[in-house]
Amino acid sequence: MKWWQGLIVLLMASTFVTGAANAGGSLGAGLHYLRNLGDISDNGINDLSQDSFSLIGSYQMDMRMFKLEGNVEYIFDYVGTGEAMWEPSVYGLVGLGALPLYAGAGIGIGYTNDEWQQNPFYALRAGVNLPLNKIGLDFYATYRFQSDTDLKNLTGEDLDSLTFAGVVRFGM
Domain extents for the chain? Predict the structure, then answer.
């Protein structure tokens, strides 16, 4: 991403955040761990890693039982390629009554090496969102379904993964 594209994203995000405080939503920041389920690690051709870590920023709009969430992740070293990746995603979530449990589905796509990935990922998510006054703790797991033609040709595997995240939410 070029510096001016980052500036535009930052300006758009700050405008979005100021309006968000009045819309019944929450902002969040946290850590995300991704584990690819395919055997992409060491096949003699490449040295890919099944593990990736990222920082995650989140905005969640609360509509009582339903929530709409937008995330942006920054993955430091995606699957051991030595390249960073930006990954925006959006989720529709449904709360489970009076319990702090929820489930939902989402879609996202990665941006690395100045280009978008060929295929988006689709995800199923389950979690618990613990409200603690004006701050909340959101812990969740996702199962991501993602195809990648280049990786499939190289290793015979896809990018399906299991992820775990912890997010601190403000303005709940």
Answer: 24-170
Query: What CA–CA distance (Å, rounded) separates 93 from 69?
Result: 8
CATH of domain 24-170: 2.40.160.20
Other Cβ atoms closer than 10 A to 163: 21
Q: What is the pLDDT of residues 43-59, one digit of tens each?
A: 555 555 667 788 999 99
pTM: 0.76
pLDDT one-digit tens code per residue, 133-166: 889 999 999 998 876 655 444 454 566 788 899 9
Q: What is the DSSP string of the chain?
A: --HHHHHHHHHHHHHHHHHHTTTTEEEEEEEEEEEE-S--SBSSS-B--SEEEEEEEEEEEEETTEEEEEEEEEESSGGGSS--EEEEEEEEEEE-TTSSEEEEEEEE--EETTEE-SS-EEEEEEEEEEEETTEEEEEEEEEEE---HHHHHHHS----EEEEEEEEEE--
Interatomic CA distance for residues 145 and 131, integer angstroms: 30
